[in-house]
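Thread: Riboflavin biosynthesis protein, structure

OP (GT): Posting the sequence first so everyone is looking at the same thing. Length is 273 residues per the record. Can we get the structure tokens written out before standup tomorrow? I want them in the notebook alongside the other entries.
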Amino acid sequence: MRKSTSIAIGGFDGMHIGHQALFRELDDNGTIVVIETGYANLTPDGFRQRYTKHRIVYLKLGDIRHLDGAGFIAFLEKKFPKLKKIVVGYDFHFGKDRKYSYEDLKQLFKGDVVVVEEVKHNNDSVHSHKIRAKLQIGDIKGANDFLGHNYTIVGKRVDGQGLGSRELVPTINLSVKDFLLPKEGVYATLTRIDDEEHFHPSVSFIGHRITTDGSFAVETHILDGTVTCKEKAEISFVDFIRNNEKFDSLENLKEAIKKDITIANRMLKRLEL
Ligand SMILES: Cc1cc2nc3c(=O)[nH]c(=O)nc-3n(C[C@H](O)[C@H](O)[C@H](O)COP(=O)(O)O)c2cc1C
Ligand SMILES: Nc1ncnc2c1ncn2[C@@H]1O[C@H](COP(=O)(O)OP(=O)(O)O)[C@@H](O)[C@H]1O
């Protein structure tokens, strides 16, 4: 922090293409200042770091929300004594009732204030809340376009019913906390197991297993061989296949899963793995 000469300020949940436009304005000693609201669920906890090489510093919203414009600048200058440049987006607001904007920063800060113009995709302004809305309707492609990377969640391995490997296909069952889960259904995915470096092509199910025991599950079936997962896995979403369905028999569910596998293979083959 003592070395930081430039900072980008915001919530930065998702680290999407709008956020990345800010980071491009940082220099080698640039730091990303995340104002934590407690609502981040696209890139919770330490997950923002994987989408940037810049150092990230977290500030609690409660510690700064009462500050006026001058107070906020004084706070930043104390925390970053070498600060020369502040980077924010076109809609950045801060302070009590969010009443200060980049105009105030420009007036009050002695160094440079860079204001990044609105980043759009297909003429639609990119924002975290829109990415959440897309995931909630299963629009993975739309969410990924806004993110500039595949939406990725991490979970802890848990035991399943054991039915998968006996009657259907083997799956890794995950308990996922803190991440927003896409809508219930079946997805073409890439899965990274434990600390492996590569991702496996996979097909994943999120939802209540309404055909079997009714309980909620996040499961992934690996398409390129037999694997063992010890502790955790990471699911990277590529495309939506179908909604969660209730089948009359395990036999029909099995047929549907076979089709899902064919579709997932087709969707994933288009990618350079
Ligand atoms: C590709 C795939 C698609 C699935 N689709 C459905 C579904 O549409 N409806 C459903 O109730 N369960 C679905 N399941 C979940 C199965 O019910 C689940 O794998 C089975 O209950 C075995 O669970 P276990 O891994 O805990 O043994 C799907 C699972 C996979 C891997
Ligand atoms: N689409 C965008 N174009 C340009 N700047 C953006 C965009 N989205 C967010 N920003 C900027 O990035 C920083 C973080 O904003 P934040 O409110 O966390 O993002 P979001 O609006 O996606 O939730 C702010 O300075 C904001 O002005």
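GT: Both are above now. Quick notes for whoever picks this up: The first strand starts at residue 6 and ends at 10. Helices lie at 17-23, 61-64, 69-79, 102-108, 128-136, 140-147, 163-167, 250-269.
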